Every structure is written in C-alpha cells, then in structure tokens.
Amino acid sequence: MNLTREENEMLAGKHGVTREKFMRILLSLGECYDAEEMIPVSSAHILYSLTALGKGGSLLIQDIASSGAKFSINTHTNPTVMDPILWKDLGVLEDRAQEQAALASALKNMGAMLSDTCTPYLIGHIPLIGEHVAWSESSAIVFANSVLGARTNREGGPSALAAALTGRVPRYGYHLDENRYGDLKIKVTAKMESAHDYGTLGFFAGKMAQDKVPVFVGISPPVSLDCLKLLGAAAATSGSVALFHVLGVTPEAQTEKAAFGRKKIGNSQTVEFGGKELRETEETLCKATDREVDLVVFGCPHASIIELREIAELIAGRKVKTGVELWICTSKVIKAYAVAAGYVQILETSGARIISDTCPVLMSGGVGKGPCPKTIATDSAKLVSYISLYAAAKGQEILPYYGSHQRCVEAGISGMWR
Ligand code: F3S
To answer: Sign (positive/negative) of CA torsion 375, 381, 386, 389?
Structure first.
C-alpha cells in the first residue's frame, strides 16, 4: 500500500508502540482487500460492552489505556451492559458492573466520549455527506452510510479501535464511489402506515439483499428519521446490509441514475414489497401465541426524543399492568432531554421505565430482575431477532410479539397481545 510519511512513521513506532501495532493491523486489513492507500477518518464508534468484548477484549483495552495511548480522533461508544442508575435493580451483577465501569474509565482516559448509545447520530455525532468515518454497530453503520451519506465499512471491535488510535482506515469497500451504487431494486407498493412497517420492510429487504445495496422505490417523501432508523437496523439484521438508498429521500439517491450509477437493473434484480409481503414478514417476526405479555421494549436502536414523546402521549394517564414491565431504551442524553420535556415523568407515573446506555440484548444476567420473561412485545425487528438468540444462548426461550407503538403500549397496559 502507498503510505504517507506520517503513516510510515506510525508503522516504524515513532508514534508509540500501540499505534505501531494497530497500524500493522490496518495494513494487513488493507492488503486483504487490495486497498491502495489509507484514508483519514474523522470519527470512530467503538464497542465496549462486556457482552461484545468478552474477557480478552476487556483486558486488551485496559492494557492499551495503561500504556498511556490516546485516541487521535473523535471517538464515541456503543451501549454497555448496564444502566448507570438502575443496573442493580435490573439484575446486573456487582462484579460485571465494576468491570464495565473500569473499562469506561480506561476509555475516558484515552479520550473517548462515553456516549454509550447505538444512535450516536441522535446526540450530535453527525458525519456529513462524503465524510469518511470508522463506525462499528450495524444499525449505526447503515444509518451513517444511507441516511447521512457518510462513508464507513462495517467495522468490528478491533478495526474501529485501530481507526480511533491512528485516525486511518484502508480505502476499500463503502469508502469507494463504485461500491455505493444500488444492486437490487425493491418496489414498495405496500401501504406504509407506521414506523414499524419500515422495520418490516427492512427485514424483508435484508433477506433479499444480504450484502448487496438495496434501493427502495415507490416510497413518497417525507420519511421520518425514526422510520429510516428502524428500516436500516432491520436490514442489517436479516442481511448484512451496510448501505441502502430510498429514491428521492436519501442523499445519494435523488434520481435513479444517482442511485444505480451505470448498473442496468433488470427483472431478476427487482422484487416487490406489497401488502402480502408486509403481512408475511410481520407474521414471521411475531412468534408468540399465548397472548400474555411479560415485557414490552421500545428503543432498539435507542429511542429518539420523538419516539419518547409518542409513547408518553399514548400512555399518559394510564398504568402498566402489575407484573408487566415496559421499558424504553435510550441514551443518557436523550433521557435528560425527555426529563426536561416532561415525558419521563409521564412515563414513570404510568409505571414505564426509561433505561439508558444499555438494552436487553447487552444486559447480562437475564433480562431484568427475577425470572427471564417468556414473552416480549416490541416494535423492533432487530430486537425480535437478537433477543431470541440471546435467550437461546442461555438455554432459555423468549417468544416475541412484534407490532406498532400503539399495539405494544396496549400490550403493556392490558398484559395481552391483541
Ligand atoms: Fe442498540 Fe441494543 Fe438494539 S445496542 S441496536 S438497542 S440490540
């Protein structure tokens, strides 16, 4: 690879042993993908939950921190295994909490901004169109690429860390113009009535596209940020979609030509998403049958202030049924905003809990205190997929109900899925 003088210096250890090691990792990565050069990146989004890192990853980060290494670009973090205030009540073990806190302090010393959210773009970390970044977390990656028009590959824990330390990534994949054009046309003819319909569309699209770039046509603007957030998160779950376009909506798809470039998209690369596909996909996500709901979860990916307001309006003056838990997961920043706006008070008076900096998937030691819930209701196709895997890994079974905000709120109030 052609390296600049500064990159060669990093490789030669002139910027410290840690940067040297991580530059070597990036070099190997670049060679694997035939990258010709490195490019500077302006931010990194890194993983540090104990669930994602495991013991080895946790020790590695603490070792790096104790060497005195510092991040060289804006570095923000994905959620952890614990809510900073409610963790004990939610069943997180003391030693796990201490280990997570030690990691947080190590990263803070290295210069990380502890955003602890999978929606960093909702709290001011907003790369602009064409800006190169190195983000991990599939739902954040797909949002950055598709909705913001920024450029990132699907970075894993080590490569995002390497980018944070060196400020570089190899130039390949979604950093290159030619890999950002659509490969698959999805004609949307279904009536898209709520945000969770976009999640259902995303889940369908991910299955169809796998690692390709789907282009949605037939969706009339405006489409809200929350709809696009659920769409991307679901597409990155059922497939490994890192970039999608919505014709006339997302920044790199204002025309068909801009979305597909010179690619000729024929019938074999076109699929329809109509009422039938919407219903069938929703049915595959809604696996529970006994109608009783133990836990209702919103905020996967972490909820926006608008979602918090919508849920507060739906629940105001009513009570979550005794024995049922209703959680809204979000970041500490959005929670503080919701406190100031009065939404948290409405929600908590109704018996809902606003969980910050974590989510049921990342939380260790079971979902909540006491026995693991048998059924969960959510508006998130991503949560549906992950929660079942998470529970199965612990030898448990959680069956999901999947539906709109309104339906999930009603489930929290009545304890029944209707
Ligand atoms: Fe975020 Fe957890 Fe969902 S990290 S995207 S809320 S699985």
So the answer is: positive
- What is the token pair recorded at 363? 């939380």
Residue 78 alpha carbon, nearest atom of ligand 1:
4
Quote the percentage of the chain above a pLDDT of 70: 98
CA of 360 to the centre of ligand 1 (A): 8
- Site to probe by mutation for ligand 1, drawn from 118, 229, 297, 389 as the one with most ligand atoms within 8 Å of Cβ, is 118
What is the DSSP track for 107-140? HHHHT-B----S-GGGGT--PPTT-B-EE-SHHH
Ligand 1 mean position, distance from CA 302 (Å) = 6
Q: Whose CA is nearest to atom 5 of ligand 1?
A: 301
* pLDDT at position 14: 97
Residue nearest to ligand 1 atom 7, measured at CA: 361
SS3 of 354, please?
strand
CA distance 241 to 209: 7
CA distances 179 to 123, 172, 234, 259, 385, Å, are: 29, 9, 21, 11, 28
CA angle 279/282/285 to nearest 5° reads 155
Report the relative pairing of strands 74-77 and 43-46 from DSSP bridges: parallel
CA of 300 to the centre of ligand 1 (A): 5
Q: Tell whether the model's pLDDT for residue 207 goes beyond 70.
A: yes
- In the structure, which protein residues have their CB atom closer than 6 angstroms to any atom of ligand 1? 79, 118, 139, 233, 300-302, 329, 359, 361-362, 382-383, 386
pLDDT of residue 190: 98
What is the best residue among 226, 361, 376, 389 to mutate for testing ligand 1's pocket, by most ligand atoms within 8 Å of CB?
361
Average pLDDT over residues 205-224: 97
- pLDDT range class, residue 135, cuts 50, 70, 90: very high
Q: What number does the ligand 1 atom closest to the CA of 79 have?
A: 4
Kindly state the DSSP code that residue 217 receives in the 8-state scheme. E
